[in-house]
Design goal:
Radius of gyration: 30 Å
Helix content: under 10%
CATH class of one domain: Mainly Beta
CATH topology of one domain: Immunoglobulin-like
Shape: globular
Strand content: over 45%
CATH architecture of one domain: Sandwich
Number of helices: 2
Structural class: mainly beta
Distance between the termini: 72 Å
CATH superfamily of one domain: Zona pellucida, ZP-C domain
Length: about 725
């Protein structure tokens, strides 16, 4: 053996070991939002995410070309981490760069070795490249802002389950966004693979998986670009203007984008699943999870709250992993909701921020992931200036009137109509006990929350509304050590009853998607989501048709809980007549009952509505039955069912049937204020003892007409 070969072998082993320990990259992204200062310089807010085996907040981006300016500030921290599917940690760094009057384009670059060791193409380096152009746009007179984008470091899919990953592609300047694979010669990627079994729709930024013969981790190194929707020009201080045109498929190679940002992540194809139906093994998102692409309004210095929930028949939900802005956090409630919180600061005003999340379900030792959903948070100006003080047994609230938009007159109250809210020329204020005025209790793993709401009203006796002008939610948050469990409401089953002389009956109460009453809301979709003012369609019908009978809808009422005798009750139908002005009886005293009305919410913090009805089953086409009499204005004496002992019965007694819940989405924004401790004598929930150790904060949520969250209706199969 030569001297050269003696030294070569250990060196090769050392290099191999180094490559293995460095095989830790899961992906990364960058977005930016520049502002032009009064003195002609530019401040560029740059946010970048990177994921590795361990948390790494170090900023090692370098200037690739052009005048990249100087870094004026930097802060970085962990966003989320997981030990499933390979241990990973995603961090975000927020960098501010000051660029002088020379606003020519520049590039930032970050690269190293290597992608995680078990990728299909092994040993590859990685490279992130961002192209920033500060030229002043002719349509906005401001420099271009990049699309907002983020994704989870690693997403997982069973080998036998096709899936579409809709990558968030929203642009703050309303430009057209496209995605493509990185190009090696442009330093946009390290391995630059385009994997078989996957297709990328560049126009919609959708990565589709259909089938592959090889399980393992696939690295995707994508580039997101934005193009104007009309011809514009970019103006520079020291060079001629340039034109930018909309994207044209036939001339794609010659059209320059406004910016280029990296979007890289790992996708793991795993062992086949027993079923690819969402909600069986693969988790399925349910209410109150926002839909993909939803725009959610937040306010400066007010805590944003996004609630995520999933279910699966054969898997238990074990986690929700997410990717969001710096300082966002995640907590869980005792009802199985995961809550993502983030508080925007003044620097975030006017910007858009992406948040993506995936639910994970566990079946034995096997973990399954849901689809990936992403939302866009739009940061608005600060809301009402308020002060919430929480003591051991009371909550005191004071809000500056000048900061409340749309306040007219003095009709303000809390959840309970008997609890008024007072005001003078400068402030709105109230003080109430934590166990009074309709205060609601909610629980997370770490906190106990007491919530109430200041609302406007027209009539102090109203208990429902279809047009809230102002809603200011107030909350006291206390730390605790133990937990309670609250009931989760589901779809009510059919009712069964037997009456002598008439036989056995089974009737089902269901909600439908339209007036055709063709598509019933799926049992898995309960609680059914609705928006205030939507038309809801209901039908009560026999499970098995009983010949020569008809059903009569005698009365219906709504309650905020699944208890028809709950003290807060809103009449909908009485004596077969519509009481609510929006009720439409589409059929009655037939083989089934169909009716509709406009959805509403109970005033206060009741986010659900149950409908309870009383029905009578009659002999069909008999003029002597209660069914035949229909709507009556007064109380109708019950029909004598037996004229003589040997006469056949004409109708049944009244039977209650209920369905629900219908639910509204929760409010998204919270503002925090500091205060002290809780009186344990106030805490009595379902017989569970809570050990409360201290007060965390008081909170205010503000909702006003014209500035509410921009929700869209979910698909009918979603909750």
């Amino acid at each position: 053996m030569s001297i050269m070969s003696v030294f070569t072998l250990p060196w090769a082993l050392l290099m191999l070991a180094s490559a293995v320990t460095a095989s830790h990259f899961y992906g990364g992204s960058m977005t930016f939002s520049p502002k032009r200062n009064a003195d002609g310089t530019f401040m560029v807010d740059i946010r970048f995410k990177a994921a590795y085996h361990t948390c790494d907040t170090y900023d090692d981006w370098v200037c690739g070309s052009g005048n990249c300016g100087s870094k004026s500030s930097y802060v970085g921290a962990r966003i989320d981490s997981s030990s499933k599917g390979g241990s990973w940690c995603q961090t975000e760094g927020v960098m501010k760069r000051t660029v002088a009057n020379n606003n020519s384009p520049f590039k930032l670059q970050k690269s190293s070795c290597c992608w995680i060791y078990n990728t299909i193409t092994t040993g590859g380096n990685w490279n992130l490249l961002t192209h920033i152009d500060l030229g002043l746009r002719s349509d906005t007179s401001q420099p271009n802002r990049s699309p907002v984008a983020t994704t989870l470091p690693i997403v997982r899919v069973p080998q036998n389950c096709p899936r579409d990953y809709k990558l968030l592609s929203c642009d703050q300047d309303h430009d057209q966004v496209r995605c493509r694979y990185g190009v090696f010669s442009a330093n946009e990627c390290g391995m630059c693979s385009q994997h078989a079994g996957f297709t990328l729709n560049q126009g919609t930024c959708t990565l589709s998986y259909r089938n592959t013969s090889q399980r393992g981790v696939y690295a995707f190194e994508l580039v997101m670009e934005d193009f104007p929707t009309q011809n514009i020009s970019l103006r520079y201080s020291s060079s001629p203007s340039v034109n930018r045109t909309p994207f044209n498929t036939n001339q794609s190679s010659s059209i320059s984008p406004l910016s280029r940002i990296p979007l890289q992540f790992a996708l793991q194809v795993e062992d086949p699943a027993p079923s690819c139906i969402e909600g069986e093994y693969l988790p399925r998102f349910i209410h109150p999870t926002p839909y993909h692409g939803e725009h959610i309004n937040a306010r400066v210095n007010q805590e944003l709250e996004i609630r995520v929930k999933a279910s699966a028949t054969f898997s238990s939900i074990s986690d929700v992993v997410f990717s969001g802005p710096l300082n966002s956090t995640k907590s869980t409630t005792t009802t199985g909701e995961y809550v993502i919180n983030w508080t925007p600061i003044a620097d975030n005003f006017g910007q858009h921020f992406p948040i993506c999340f995936i639910a994970e379900g566990q079946n034995g030792s096997i973990s399954y992931q849901s689809e990936m959903r992403c939302v866009i948070v739009v940061v608005n100006a600060e809301g009402p200036k308020a002060n919430v003080k929480c003591t051991k047994d009371t909550m005191t609230v004071s809000v500056e009137r000048a900061t409340i938009t749309g306040l007219h007159g003095g009709h303000l109250r809390l959840n309970n109509a008997s609890c008024e809210v007072y005001f003078n020329n400068t402030h709105v204020f109230t003080n109430f006990s934590l166990n009074a005025c309709g205060t609601q209790i909610e629980e997370t793993d770490d906190h106990l929350l007491f919530k109430n709401e200041i609302v406007t009203y027209d009539n102090p006796k109203d208990i429902i509304t279809r047009k809230h002008n102002i809603e200011i939610e107030v909350m006291c948050k206390y730390e605790k050590k133990s937990s309670i469990t609250l009931k989760f409401d589901a779809r009510r089953p059919a009712i069964n009853f037997t009456e002598r002389g008439l036989g056995s009956f089974s009737y089902q109460f269901d909600f439908y998607q339209s007036s055709s009453f063709f598509n019933r809301k799926s049992p898995n979709s309960y609680p059914v989501e609705y928006d205030v003012g939507d038309t809801i369609y209901m039908k009560i019908e026999p499970v098995n048709l009983v010949q020569n009978t008809e059903v009569f809808l005698e009365s219906c009422a709504a309650t905020p809980y699944d208890n028809p005798r709950y003290p807060i009750s809103y009449p909908i139908i009485s004596n077969g007549c519509g009481v609510d002005s929006t009720v439409r009886l589409l059929s009655n005293h037939e083989s089934n009952v169909r009716f509709s009305m406009e959805a509403f919410k109970f005033i206060g913090q009741y986010d659900q509505v149950f409908i309870s009805c009383s029905i009578i089953i009659c002999q069909a086409n008999n003029p002597n039955t209660r069914c035949a009499r229909g709507c009556t204005n007064g109380t109708v004496a019950p029909t004598n069912q037996h004229v003589h002992k040997r006469d056949a019965p004409l109708q049944t007694e009244s039977h209650f049937i209920s369905q629900g819940p219908l639910r509204m989405r929760r409010s998204p924004s919270l503002t925090q204020f500091i205060s002290p401790s809780l009186n344990l004598n106030l805490v009595f929930i379902a017989g569970c003892l809570l050990a409360v150790v201290g007060m965390v904060c008081g909170v205010v949520v503000y909702k006003a007409r014209g500035s509410k969250v921009n929700y869209q209706r979910l698909k009918s199969e979603e909750i």
